[in-house]
């Protein structure tokens, strides 16, 4: 069975009678501004390339990713989304013992289970506002002989984050480290991105995609960064020829170059995150936790459950994420992402009515 991630708006539209465009999907964590306009226009101008095979080396795409991320082009591997890259990396390292955060994105555990790894958990607890206890985690890595650590930075669904110095301290243990940077672009990359560390630690693999920040989940483009030459060779040898389609290649080249768009997204998301924290602080029956992502984890403090709140909001064409199925969370926890200013105001208004 495959886990479902986010809402199926087509199913919701059928069940509740909404048009898909009416639904405010706060469960998907996708940038509401949409894709870079200049990159979409460039794609439109080059639709005729559908008759052309992509460059099997993806030289231009890798150069664009390199300029954007600061990674050496030779250290970049491409995939059909980050999940494909997780799967390949985990399979090739094939750790006997692995550590993940709890709670975390479920696909890490699924891939580790598929290779028969023994999974250990670093518990992120409400009493610590879901922050990572770095010293105790490093001690666990050493005492349990953990071979691989996987986490998202910021972590989904908690918004927890580690800075570059903390990540460096983990790498010094010699562990294989997979850092999922799906959400790092919503925060200060100069402090929190681990890409620069790949130049110094071959035991580090950083994975990024374009689904969330660049709002293009449909093109299925992901990229990994590592300086482990043996691993890079194996990944490239095992990847399918033309594993990224021509439209993802074209779109990717341009959107990584659109710095104006990137600044616009970053500024909007940060201002709206501040808006949510301010407004939520006025609702006495909701507690929200610090977040560095484009989403916020909350806890209901009265008799209601997240499932009940989700069902209530669904009737208003608003979808939030019930987090009761995450480890270390419960039926009181829900998560929502940042959407348009109008949708954000609508959510706050409905939450204030519900909890009045």
UniProtKB/TrEMBL annotation:
Gene3D superfamilies: Aspartate Aminotransferase, domain 1, Type I PLP-dependent aspartate aminotransferase-like (Major domain)
UniProt domain Aminotransferase class I/classII large: residue ranges: 25-350
Enzyme Commission number(s) of this protein: 2.6.1.9
InterPro entries: Aminotransferase_I/II_large, PyrdxlP-dep_Trfase, PyrdxlP-dep_Trfase_major, PyrdxlP-dep_Trfase_small
Keyword set includes Magnesium: no
Domain of life: Bacteria
UniProt entry keywords in alphabetical sequence: Aminotransferase, Pyridoxal phosphate, Transferase
Cofactor: pyridoxal 5'-phosphate
GO molecular function: histidinol-phosphate transaminase activity; pyridoxal phosphate binding
Signal peptide, first to last residue: none
Keyword set includes Transferase: yes
PANTHER family in UniProt: HISTIDINOL-PHOSPHATE AMINOTRANSFERASE-RELATED, THREONINE-PHOSPHATE DECARBOXYLASE
Protein name: Histidinol-phosphate transaminase
Species this protein is from: Peptoniphilus indolicus ATCC 29427
């Amino acid at each position: 069975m495959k886990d479902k991630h986010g809402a199926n708006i087509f199913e919701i539209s059928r069940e509740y009678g909404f048009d898909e465009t009416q639904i405010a999907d706060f469960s998907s964590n996708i940038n509401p501004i949409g894709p870079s306009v200049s990159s979409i226009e460039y794609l439109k101008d080059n639709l005729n390339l559908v008759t052309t095979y992509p460059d099997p080396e993806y030289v231009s795409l890798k150069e664009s990713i390199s300029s954007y991320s600061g990674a050496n082009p030779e250290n970049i591997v491409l995939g059909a989304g980050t999940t494909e890259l997780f799967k390949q990396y985990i399979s090739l390292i094939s750790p006997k013992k692995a550590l993940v955060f709890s709670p975390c994105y479920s696909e890490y555990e699924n891939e580790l289970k598929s290779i028969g790894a023994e999974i250990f958990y670093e518990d992120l607890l409400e009493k610590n506002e879901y922050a990572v206890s770095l010293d105790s985690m490093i001690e666990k890595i050493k005492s349990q002989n953990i071979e691989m650590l996987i986490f998202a930075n910021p972590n989904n669904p908690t918004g927890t984050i580690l800075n570059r110095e903390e990540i460096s301290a983990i790498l010094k243990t010699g562990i294989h480290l997979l850092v999922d940077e799906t959400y790092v672009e919503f925060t200060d990359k100069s402090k929190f991105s681990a890409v620069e560390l790949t130049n110094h630690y071959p035991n580090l693999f950083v994975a990024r995609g374009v689904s969330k920040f660049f709002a293009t989940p449909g093109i299925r483009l992901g990229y990994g960064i590592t300086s482990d030459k043996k691993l890079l060779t194996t990944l490239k040898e095992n990847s399918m020829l033309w594993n990224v389609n021509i439209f993802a290649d074209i779109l990717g080249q341009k959107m990584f170059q659109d710095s104006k768009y990137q600044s616009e997204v970053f500024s909007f998301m940060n201002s709206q995150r501040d808006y949510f924290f301010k407004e939520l602080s006025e609702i006495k029956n909701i507690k929200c936790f610090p977040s560095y992502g484009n989403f916020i984890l909350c806890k209901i403090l009265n008799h209601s459950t997240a499932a009940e709140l989700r069902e209530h909001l669904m009737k208003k064409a608003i979808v939030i994420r019930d987090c009761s199925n995450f480890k270390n969370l419960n039926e009181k926890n829900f998560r929502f992402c940042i959407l348009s200013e109008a949708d954000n105001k609508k959510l706050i208004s409905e939450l204030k009515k519900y909890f009045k």
